[in-house]
Write a structure and sequence with these properties.
Shape: elongated
Distance between the termini: 32 Å
CATH class of the largest domain: Alpha Beta
Strand content: 5-15%
Protein name: Ribosome biogenesis GTPase A
Family: Belongs to the TRAFAC class YlqF/YawG GTPase family. MTG1 subfamily.
Subcellular location: Cytoplasm
CATH superfamily of the largest domain: P-loop containing nucleotide triphosphate hydrolases
Number of domains: 2
Strand order of the largest sheet: 4-3-2-5-8-7-6
Keywords: Cytoplasm, GTP-binding, Nucleotide-binding
GO molecular function: GTP binding; GTPase activity
Number of strands: 9
Order of helices and strands: EHEHEHEHEHEEEEHHHHH
């Protein structure tokens, strides 16, 4: 699959809104998908956020491999980032996110006090790619209390802040980068439902993903798709899945489109087990030949 380019007008506006709102933000909560923490990270965000502290929330941790999530948390910590695994549906990890937000806000409170100013609520932006679990996390952080506190001066109209105790939370539109040059990044985002399926050929995405799924969950792939061993021919593999699951066109021909959609749906719903599609980079060796900080 070649590079994916999908950056409609509303995405341009969303990026501008995020950039404008960041001027008033104290802490950024960046939401990524725990099943693909690198692919679901927006590389523009570090530049947009500047020196503001960030908490990386790895959403959908309940669908990811726990060992891989632990490895990613250590990797992100070694990069100087605060990271927390989150299952917003059950509320797991949400308290930890709030604790880290308040901890990172403490220097601002100290600075205000040193200047003789009273503390104010921490202003927190919750940001991430579309459909990554951002709004679900914000709802959990707000505890269902979504009382709005109005717009802030200097911020694009329409962005609303939600007051929750000593925090003011801001949910901004999801933002994508204009183009994913790495084909693997593109198909991972499509496979997880972060990029809309309409922009790519779904059978190609599913076929590219099958070797990963077979390596990670061979038993589940055999049981649910009827595939044994790595597929030599992606088109033949999709045809086999279609026959195995009874996805046939008139005349008994296998329906590759429906088979591909089935594979992606079962991945997203966790029917193949708890899978992580990306592993963190290996830590660089230290001067003594051992792993550096955060190694595993």
């Amino acid at each position: 699959m070649g590079s994916i380019s999908w950056f409609p007008g509303h995405m341009v506006r969303a990026r501008r809104q995020v950039a404008e709102a960041l001027r008033l933000v104290d802490v950024v909560v960046e939401v990524r998908d725990a099943r693909a923490p690198a692919a679901s990270a927006n590389p523009d965000l570090a530049q947009l956020a500047g020196r503001r502290p960030r908490v990386v929330a790895l959403a959908h941790a309940d669908l990811a491999d726990p060992a891989a999530t632990g490895a990613w948390l250590r990797h992100l910590s070694a990069q100087g980032l605060t990271a927390v695994a989150v299952d917003a549906a059950r509320g797991t990890g949400v308290r930890e996110v709030l604790v880290e937000v308040r901890r990172l806000y403490e220097p601002v409170v100290a600075s205000l006090g040193a200047r003789g100013r009273l503390p104010r609520p921490a202003r927190v932006m919750v940001v991430g790619m579309p459909n990554v679990g951002k709004s679900s996390l914000l709802n959990r952080m707000a505890g269902g209390r979504r009382a709005r506190v109005g717009e802030k001066p200097g911020v694009t109209r329409g962005l609303q802040w939600v007051r929750v105790g000593d925090l003011e939370l801001l949910d901004v539109p999801g933002i994508l980068v204009p183009r994913f040059v790495d084909p693997r990044t593109g198909y991972l985002l499509v496979a997880l439902g972060i990029v809309r399926e309409e922009v790519v050929d779904i059978p190609r995405v599913a076929a590219a993903l099958l070797p990963d799924l077979q390596a990670l969950a061979p038993g589940a792939v055999r049981e649910r798709f009827g595939l044994e061993g790595p597929p030599a021919d992606p088109e033949a593999a999709l045809a086999q899945v279609a026959r195995f699951r009874g996805l046939l066109r008139p005349g008994g021909l296998p329906d590759a489109d429906r088979a591909a959609a089935l594979i992606l749906r079962e991945l997203r719903e966790g029917r193949l087990g708890r899978l992580t599609l990306e592993q963190p980079p290996e830590p660089l060796p230290g001067p003594d030949g051992c792993s550096g900080p955060g190694g595993f």
